[in-house]
Amino acid sequence: MVSCAMNKYLPRIVDAELNDLLDGAPAIAVEGPKGIGKTATLARRASTIYTIDDPRQRTLLEADPDRLNDDPKPVLLDEWQRLPQVWDWVRRAVDGGTAPGSFLLAGSAAPIEAPVHSGAGRFITLRMRPMSLAERQLEPATISLSQLLTGSKEPLRQSSVLGLRDYVGEIVSSGFPGIRESPARARKLLLDGYLQRISQRDFEEQGRTVRRREALLAWLRSYAAATATSASYNRILDAATPGEADKPARSTTEAYRQVLTDLWILDPLPAWLPGSRGLSRLGQAPKHHLTDPALAARLLGLGLQSLLAGEEAGPDAFRGGDLLGRLFESLVTQSLRVYSQRNEANVYHLRTKNGDHEIDLIVERDDGRVIAIEVKLSPLVRDEDVRHLTWLRDRIGNRLLDSLVVTPGKDAYRRSDGIAVVPAALLNS
Hints:
single chain; 6-stranded mixed sheet
């Protein structure tokens, strides 16, 4: 049990979600990868903090779990998955009538041993991701996804001070609060250390032994090179092991995927499958994304200057001159998922089975109405760039609330066809 003084804190969008929920939910679990600020966000609300990856505090709770009922509330249980029975102890306290806002749980991995009970109807679970562009406070982010989701299609006349170089800088700087403000050299080493920890420690903590760390890192590099594509996992493996007869077994690479998903390092974007007439021939494969595009860039050994110069790295199978565009799409996707969660909306991508139509992002409200978004690296938006958006409008009519093209450009505006052009940094929740 500890108390801590707060350092400088940049507000997170999940703060607003927590403020909305604390008065009505006895237990809230916030999950996401290590280093994204879960503890800093939740500790601001806690009166009692248990750091469960500290063996002393873990032993304390194991010896006397009933102390949770007597501690000043809210109680934060940080890295709770290191002692999975914590979940059931909290569930019993909730069943016993504990007050709203009593327990906060932070987890950076799925527990090896799942709790006896799922927590359904007792816990609220929120996903936390690395810092979105709006949370980085690069400039006032004044175009609200909440407003766009109303379908009002208001005029857009805002301007951004950022350009392509700034966005590439944000790709390589990362959204990890403890990394992004460091000097460039330190940032590279911190990202390298983050990736090394995954292969050297986190897999073992998840009960998996990595016999060939170089094979795991090669697979991760191949996955990074496939960012924002829906390439098959067989293709990713083949690209990671070109010309090798002794490839990792399928069971091995499936274990890689499972553990990396449990650690919230992989953040694939599911396909949109609405089941609508006229939209029945849609692909089902997810688009590949790491939790932060900075990890992808670092795995590929690419920095600010090399990306601006158009350099590519990684397996030849994924080289095609569009890597920077796909990393920019990953940055926008990561941010949009943060904004969408605040609005209780889900994010998908759309691709027809034969690949003749693709839309980078579909934001769907609970009622099935959507915003369609294309991400373009060029600030110049031509008719050719919106053809898939107009195709979808023709298919689903008034279910389409709005259409956007998100760019690294300077100006927000609406084209004569009503499609919005929005600089990425101006978007917010």
